Each structure stands twice: as structure tokens, then as C-alpha cells.
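Re: the multi-chain job from yesterday

Posting the exact lines I submitted so nobody has to dig through the queue logs.
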Amino acid sequence: NAGVTQTPKFRVLKTGQSMTLLCAQDMNHEYMYWYRQDPGMGLRLIHYSVGEGTTAKGEVPDGYNVSRLKKQNFLLGLESAAPSQTSVYFCASSLTPNTGELFFGEGSRLTVL
Amino acid sequence: AQSVAQPEDQVNVAEGNPLTVKCTYSVSGNPYLFWYVQYPNRGLQFLLKYITGDNLVKGSYGFEAEFNKSQTSFHLKKPSALVSDSALYFCAVRPPRYGGSQGNLIFGKGTKLSVKP
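And the result, C-alpha cells for all chains:
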């Protein structure tokens, strides 16, 4: 019962490098989300998707891009990493947009030096 | 601006005692309310939600929460705390989809619950 799987779980980057975080869900959920978690800040929404081929900006989208080419996958890209992007990133999915709960992956810890 | 407040960074409780983790919100309209729990090095897990109806909702692991519309609060409670309840708890609010809101969840900053034997 995989649920939501994130890869990689840990990554260290140098400033200016690029990388992609992959999120995969096997629950046939339409809605997928990328959050970042920082101490004392809670979770902040980066981007989200309401279905295959669609993406939208969340609260803190700058410096990130996303793609949802397949329903089960939601990719988060950093084109030129900055130290301010050091964080723990969580992917989540939900069946419905309003009343349904989110199912979270276990997180990807990114450090930008 | 729409927001969720968890006024306590940390709550300390002795095992067997009742616990309360506080949450208040500032959202127009009738929002949907959620509690999530995060254990160390894990993702968030859903605990319970309030959509409509009875103000007292019951969730996983013996937790419950009371919705109070007049006080715009949604406090999480448990009658008897366990050491295994020690974790980070997040309150979240989903505002109605109008007035420019996409209806995405707004999370509080989290409250660390520590239950001592």
C-alpha cells in the first residue's frame, strides 16, 4: 500500500544547481500539492494541480516550477537552487478538493549550500 | 487576510491527563476544519475534520475536536494522553471557494505536544 511516494528523500545541492523532486501516488487522486515546511512556519503551499496537465501557483511559488504530465505524478523543479530553498518538501494528494483529507508523502529534505 | 493561529508552540502534559491543543482561525464564510499529526521524520497524517453538523467531532487515536463558531475555534482534545501521542499537531482550515480564494488548505504553524510518563 504505497500511497504517496517521494524521491529522493535527501539531497544536498550547491547554489545554482538544478534538481527535480518526484511525487507519485497510486490512489487515483485528481488533486496534488507541493508544500514546504520550515521551522516555526508550518506548511506553505508552493504549487498545486487539479488534474493531469494542469498546474497552479500557491502561496510561495517563486523559484519553483512544476509539471503534471501523468495523473499519478507531480514533479517539483528547482532551476537554480538558492540557500533560501533549504527546507523539507512534502507532496500530498486528495480525492476531492474541499472535504477530502490530504494524504502526504514522507518528505524530501533538501539542503542548498 | 485569512489565517490560522495555534497560540502555543508547545504543550506539556502528564500521561493519563487530559490534553487540549488550541486552534483559532480567521476565515470568511463557513470553512472546513482539519487536524493533522506529524511524527518525527514522517509526513502529516489526517486526524479528523469538521464539515458540518455536530460541533464535537471524533477522530483517530481517541482524539476529538470541538468547533465553536462564535469563538472561531477548533480545539483538539483527548481525555487521557499517552506518551505515544507526543508529536507535532497542525490545525488547517479550508476557506470557501469565493472572493478570490482557491479553497486551498491554510495550515497553522504547529504545536509540539510532549506527553511525559
